[in-house]
Amino acid sequence: MENRTEIGKKIKDKLADLDKNPSEFVWSKIETDLNKKRNKRILSWIIPGVIIAVLFCTLFYFNSDFQDKTQKSDNQAKQETTAKAPSQKTNLVSDQKQNQKSNPKLQKSGSDIVTRVKKTKSVKLIKESSKLVTSTNEYEEYEVVKKYKVILKKEQVTTKLIKSGTLKKTIQPKATENKLLIKKNKTTETKSKKKTKTHSTKHSKKVVYKPLATEIPKNKSPEKDAATQKTVSTPRVIEAKIDTIAKMDSLKLKKDTTPKREYKKTVYNTENKESDPELSVSVFYGPAISGSLNSASMIDPSMDNLATKHPVTSHYGVYVKTMYDKIGFRAGFSKINLKTSTRLDKDELIPNYNNIELKSEINIKQTFTGSNEVDLVQKLSYYELPIEFVYAFKKDESKIGMEAFTGFSFLISDKNQLSLKSEKVAMQNIGEAKNISGINFSYNLGIGISYKLNAKFSLDINPLFKYYLSTFKESGDAKPHSFSLQSGVSYKF
Amino acid sequence: MNLDQLIKDCCKQNRKAQEALYEMYKKTLFVLSLKYCPNDAEAEDNLHDSFIEIFTNIKNYKGNGSFEGWIKRITINKAITRYKQSYTLTAIKDDYPEDHTVNETEIDLPLETILSFIQELPHQYRLVFNLYELDDYSHQEIATMLSISESTSKSNLHRAKQILKEKIKSKSTFYYSKRKNGK
């Protein structure tokens, strides 16, 4: 009788003995794809990082530039306002006269001035007091103190505004016109100075100083009306509370001259001490040397014990620097070339180093037969995008300035070349190192020394140390670094 | 190198460790892929995709269960994803005959031939047959993995076995007649 078995079990047992290997190229394909993934991962971090950094710097620069312009325009506007004030006051005084003519009641109380205020503005008289200073047969002098609270609403922004300013008015009953003399009380002015600091809005709407004067009726004697009408405190739209003191200067009665107004130019304290951002461009060119912080070879671990030399190469490029007083940023574009030379054992030229991809057409043994001193030269060059933080620790009027900078560079590999040379054969390109990554990063640390030639130009010399963070595709033992001396010229805008 | 150390190094994306791990498991996973794929080329593609997945997600392996089991599951899942799209729902009644036995002599065929029979099965049958017979998944698990019903899984297994049985029988007749003539 035949032994029958279940097909599934039988196949399983049979296939357990299956022994088959995949083809050789599967791993190389996996390796290539893993490298691509790694580069993509790095780029996915770097590209947004660089974009954010550039945006941040741009925003920072333009923001400070905008603030500066706003401040300047505000100052200019205020100066213009101050300059225009006398004429405006005159106009307003005449307006006030007309208003009072049409409404006699306005002449009798100080609060009438409130009616002159624009609809967007609310003025409140908080305190009022009058004090008799001098009383003679000819005149009486009163000191009237009024305290106002003014709120000005602009674009849904409530701003507390207080009127200030004092009118000193001398009334000459016999004169055909009432002549006004406006004089600021010194104490008031001091307060005013302090409080009229620019609380400017971004819309740069000018707040106009509008003194309002009350016309004194011609038929009334100064003696009768002095207590109530002779002195009028003028509201001034500013963002503070101040006291207004109006004095009736009796001495002016004797003078039959044009009403005199004294305006003192308000000096605005610049609260914003932030200076203009300094923008400068530098070009540099300098020598560079590279190597490994430990003795490990950048090509292959089996070459660790061989003698190496570090020929001088070049580092050149351009920087844009923005300084805000003592701190700032610099970014740029440059190219750095690195070179390391390793003396090979003449009996073992390019043994089976895993990390060297040899050119197929090169026959090394044949070419270098008879050479005693054969050097393997590794040339690497990178395009560099540095972003660095700068701190100026010596920045004064002297010609020499010093600063320190630190940051990171994003490096894109341009050249990865391995060459052989000997005393008999000139440099012969043999291939490239397989272990070098296409994208690299470096940590930068340097000192900048500058010498001012004039206000715009200066000479720079920047010793710079770079430590490379991801030179290798795999984690290599070598710790590559470079030292360069960037020397060049800066132009300050 | 110790497997744990190798896994740790692979987590750091150390290329040498990854290569060592590949060398360690390439045969196992390739044979597994061969059973699930219709030919060697697709099995290599599946192996490639599986190792990329393994190296990308190796940090997610927490040590629960065997590492080999974990990477095998990844390989099987890759194969399922590859052929799931072409999966057709072919549910049949549960009263199909259960006789899927073959003679010992009939199945005494070369390994390559048996493998080719499996590879020649339609995708859906091959997946179910492999999962159920070779990798010991239950119909319930297969149904979940392939997003099908259990009855569909059972019917596909039945059809797969039927096809295999026919192929083995015909091949064995041819094989033995050839051997007989040869003698």
UniProtKB/TrEMBL annotation, chain A:
Residues 78-112 have a biased composition (Polar residues). The chain crosses the membrane at residues 42-62. SUPFAM superfamilies: OMPA-like (SSF56925). Residues 73-113, 183-206 are annotated as: Disordered. InterPro entries: OMP/PagP_B-barrel. Residues 192-206 have a biased composition (Basic residues). Keywords: Membrane, Transmembrane, Transmembrane helix. This is Uncharacterized protein. It comes from Flavobacterium circumlabens.
UniProtKB/TrEMBL annotation, chain B:
One of its GO terms (biological process) is DNA-templated transcription initiation. The keyword 4Fe-4S does not apply. Residues 21-85 form the RNA polymerase sigma-70 region domain. InterPro entries: RNA_pol_sigma-70-like (IPR039425), RNA_pol_sigma-70_dom (IPR014284), RNA_pol_sigma70_r2 (IPR007627), RNA_pol_sigma70_r4_t2 (IPR013249), RNA_pol_sigma_r2 (IPR013325), RNA_pol_sigma_r3/r4-like (IPR013324), WH-like_DNA-bd_sf (IPR036388). One of its GO terms (molecular function) is DNA binding. Residues 112-162 form the RNA polymerase sigma factor 70 region 4 type domain. It comes from the Bacteria. Keywords: Sigma factor, Transcription, Transcription regulation. SUPFAM superfamilies: Sigma2 domain of RNA polymerase sigma factors, Sigma3 and sigma4 domains of RNA polymerase sigma factors. NCBIfam families: sigma70-ECF (TIGR02937). Belongs to the sigma-70 factor family. ECF subfamily. This is RNA polymerase sigma factor.
